[in-house]
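Duplicate of #3305? Posting structure anyway:
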């Protein structure tokens, strides 16, 4: 796997490297999850892109020996939030522009997701790890 970060990669290169399992797992942090979500959702049908993202993420986690880290609820919730943010903008730009305009997407514990979930509780919930659990909070 390629060493180093993903910041220099444009969205197309990020998707290609991720699906080829050519990204060092240590370089694939929360920021890269958000950028990859954007890159896969851009110009695509939400359902198809979300399933593609989910499968790619599960495959990546398994290849890194971290299959147990995959979390179904966090994955789908972030996909929905990123998709909404993309469509709220008149020109969504690219994934780097999205995270620059919406830094709350990068604040995993207290950011965008916290409007909908008790993030610590949902992250630790075994059921939410296996299946999508609806939010308990309304924005």
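Output from current build:
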């Amino acid at each position: 796997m390629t060493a180093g970060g993903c910041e220099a990669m444009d969205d197309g290169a990020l998707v290609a490297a991720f699906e080829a399992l050519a990204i060092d797992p240590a370089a694939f942090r929360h920021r890269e999850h958000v950028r990859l979500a954007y890159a896969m959702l851009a110009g695509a049908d939400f359902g198809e892109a979300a399933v593609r993202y989910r499968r790619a993420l599960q495959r990546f986690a398994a290849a890194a020996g971290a299959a147990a880290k995959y979390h179904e609820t966090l994955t789908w919730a972030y996909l929905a939030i990123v998709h909404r943010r993309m469509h709220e903008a008149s020109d969504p730009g690219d994934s780097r522009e999205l995270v620059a305009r919406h830094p709350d997407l990068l604040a995993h514990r207290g950011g965008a997701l916290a409007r909908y979930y008790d993030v610590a509780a949902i992250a630790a919930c075994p059921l939410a790890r296996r299946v999508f659990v609806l939010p308990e909070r309304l924005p």
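Confirmed duplicate; merging threads. The chain has a mean pLDDT of 91. Residues 37 and 79 are 6 Å apart (CA to CA).
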